[in-house]
């Protein structure tokens, strides 16, 4: 054995004695990923993780120059964009990647739903995943305010107003979110704390749980594919995780990086005007696109429906719908019983997707009535 | 039983808290005066005097009825009017209207006397008054013109610094208007009566009444307080120039430079009016519908052409400044560093202000030199803005380079995957 | 590709020539740049400031935007006052408007001399 190989062997042994990492490496070597006509959706999880990593990295870089006070936030972002080398790049990537992340998370969630990846024993994976989606939306909402520009200020005002209309806890939630009765510098500091400390801590914990569960149970094979295999008797095909699947992932990640660089350079994120607490709201205020479906629903509902306030009804509706969606692993027992009534859930899923898509589109496309 | 003797005691006790008594730094003991005690029992004008005297500045300085009207302030305590109104004690009673200026001047024109009360106070009011139209008419016995009490009040006279005084800057115009708005009264003297109405629409009135700026002019600032008279045609520019210094200097320079006498044009008034002075606009310069140049200078004249040139140069400059400012703020919002260029653009805005002032020089060359400088600066600002957008474009170049690199990596990965999966099919 | 990623990140982390947005603090001049009874206009964020070195050697910093119509003011060594050429406004070295149309005083800034630099900061 050559000297270099001997040194490497001794080093590996030293580490193994102290950490027992070889178990992990063996696990990685043995891990496989099923291959079938729907296996392209398996990449969505990894893509989300990659984009989240981008967010953490660019976020930490932004932390080096950002100042979370009403008097300095806007100026610090302006400084960052104009005077710091590549500051414009880091900021635009952070903003674009945030949107891309939410989009990919939605794709990941819907693909898991339609492919019924939530079936036993993966219920907890689904629950932690939904919690992570909520955390991502919270990241988006809190981060949006941080540049302290007009658009963000009013979007936050509208958003916290909606939170305030919840029954019973609404007033408390509004004051908790805003750090007071109005959106002020106090709100900014609070959102900053959420965005850089509280939410990352919660996300780390939930993400660790989610990933561990995924490793434990492996990738779920959709019931349709399973049934087909049973019928044709074909042996299940699979791909080794290391290095094949990971290389495929890497291709996707590089493409995503290229897309982000392109978006940052061709469609840089605008800074706008500094927020003026006393100015009236400009026309056409709306939240970020991933909240637009809720915004549009609230706009379209009449003031009162059967004696109940329209807004309240909508919020309760969202809450009920969200709860049902969350608990779908416990509601949908049909795959165990046979695959005929599975259709119901698939149809419901398409209806929900259509509803979200249409509501989001309506905000951007003015309807000529 | 007569309670008369108790009244002065009561008044003396009540003196410090009498309604209307103002806190002053000089607070002498309430002067012994039976005049007030008696007059409070009367009615009509006699009562008014006694009621209001507590607010009077003279009273607060320790003077009382007898100091102006004479008579015996103590003797009347038992109701003896004859003793109080004793001519041997100098009682003059109510002076005739036309005699009032001399009546007040007995003290107010006496420098030695006034020095004991307010060394800074002027003592030439009567001599100034004599130069005014009011004073001249008063000298020939006209009872209708204003005398001291018409403006300053009587028996409840406050200083001009007191906002309740009729001669406080915020109330002078209304005080003058009491007579000067009376069409019939003014017609008798051949004076128009629309000055107050005009003044109320002016920027001066706006500054004084709406913004509370007491440095803004009212009637007496241009016409004089006691020597009230219109400034006279040749003095208009001097009077306006006492505040609007630079414009007046430029105006006088052109008179000297071109050997012109602009008196018939009534100087400032021809463009700006005398009472209804409106905020000036850029449309006043040039040959447009709101222009003041064309009210005298017809088409084809040198002045007409010059006005046209100056107005269009100013418009061009303003447009360029707006353009450059817009370009630079768009670049700033897009994330390019342009703060130094925005700073330099300030100079162009300064030139716009300078040009507007130089309109009063009526000097085409000087005006165009300033606008040319402003145009040069805004051109620089605009090209800095364009440079900033080119930099944005350069970022796209950097992007293209990085995309090439990323693409190369992707191709490499794909090839590696092909090799791997070609070698080991599942 | 690692270089393509790390190059911008490294350039980003290395501090730029100005360490922070100059909205509340800036270096107006170097010590000795101005002689006594001289002044210079400097950029303070997106506003203009005027740094005056008084005859006794002390420094004063004021806003250079005239409070009348925002023209840039200048220092008159002969008057020992700050003058606005647009309409002849005058301010004393405390910034108080003493003559002419300006309705309000000029904002005063704090001046510190440190490490050979004249640092101006908002009060």
Detailed description of the structure:
- The complex is a heterotrimer of chains A (369), B (426) and C (123).
- Chain A is mostly helical.
- Chain A has helices at 3-19, 22-30, 43-63, 73-82, 87-114, 123-145, 150-164, 170-178, 185-217, 223-232, 241-266, 292-300, 310-326, 328-331, 334-337, 342-364; strands spanning 32-35, 237-240, 304-305, 308-309.
- Chain A has a single domain (31-364), classed as Cytochrome Bc1 Complex, Chain C, CATH 1.20.810.
- Chain A has a two-stranded antiparallel sheet with strand order 1-2.
- In chain A, a hairpin with a 2-residue loop joins strand 3 and strand 4 (308-309).
- The N and C termini of chain A lie far apart (81 Å).
- In chain A, 29% of the residues are buried.
- By secondary structure, chain B is mainly α.
- Among the domains of chain B are: 1-94, no CATH class; 234-279, no CATH class; 302-396.
- Chain C has 123 residues and is mainly β.
- Helices cover 10% and strands 41% of the residues of chain C.
- Chain C has one helix at 2-13, and strands spanning 25-30, 38-44, 47-53, 59-63, 74-76, 81-84, 89-91, 97-99, 108-114, 117-122.
- Chain C has a six-stranded antiparallel β-sheet, with no helix packed on it. A four-stranded antiparallel β-sheet of chain C has the order 5-6-7-8, with no helix packed on it.
- In chain C, strand 2 and strand 3 (47-53) form a beta hairpin.
- Chain C is elongated, with a radius of gyration of 18 Å.
- The mean pLDDT of chain C is 87.
- The interface between A and B is medium-sized, with 32 and 26 residues.
* Structural domain tally of chain A: 1
Chain pair sharing the greatest interface: A-B, 32 and 26 residues
Describe the global form of chain B.
Answer: elongated
At CATH level 2, the architecture of chain A is Up-down Bundle
The residue ranges of chain B in which pLDDT falls below 50 over 5 or more consecutive positions are: 12-30
Coarse structural class of chain A: mainly alpha
CATH topology call of chain A:
Cytochrome Bc1 Complex, Chain C
Uncertain parts of chain A: none
- How many strand elements of chain B? 0
Helix and strand string of chain A, N-terminal first?
Answer: HHEHHHHHHHHEHHEEHHHH
Please report the number of helical segments of chain A: 16
Average pLDDT number of chain B:
84
Helix run count of chain B: 22
Amount of beta strand of chain A? under 5%
Mean pLDDT value of chain A: 87
Strand content of chain B: under 5%
Cα distance spanning the termini of chain B: 134 Å
